[in-house]
Design brief:
Distance between the termini: 43 Å
Radius of gyration: 19 Å
Number of domains: 1
Strand content: under 5%
Structural class: mainly alpha
Mean pLDDT: 89
Helix content: over 70%
Amino acid sequence: MGIIEKLQVPAEKADHFFSWFSWALLLTFRVYVAWVFLKSGMHKIGDWELTLTLFEYEYQVPLLNYELAAYLATFGELVFPIFLIAGFGTRLFAILLFFVNFMAVISYYATLAKGAGLVWHYLWGSMLLVNIVYGGGQVSLDHWLKSKFGHEPAAAY
């Protein structure tokens, strides 16, 4: 047995061991990111006048009127996470939340870059990318629907 084969055996055992935990990682990423966005959306509707003021004077959302941007961002932060937590249309809603996160970074980059805020957006974006690539995992409605009906719902893509 050559050196490559000897190294491959423990790597395959580790891969098998860690693949069992993938459902927990995917679920944790979904729930954590969804919680962050839901909390942000709740803050926005908690003081709508402040939200509109921030979108008008502080955030620089490109190509959109500040009021429309405020409504769209709040809608995205309150609705998309519900689907993400459930794991229904995981890839679609992870992409949509990734876009919301991306727009927040673009709109508020100057302020985020001054502090540690930008790092959090990178973290959330990375967690969403994992769910975009791997889907919702075994603990998701997508997985349940696929096992019950033989295919994932159209919203999963």
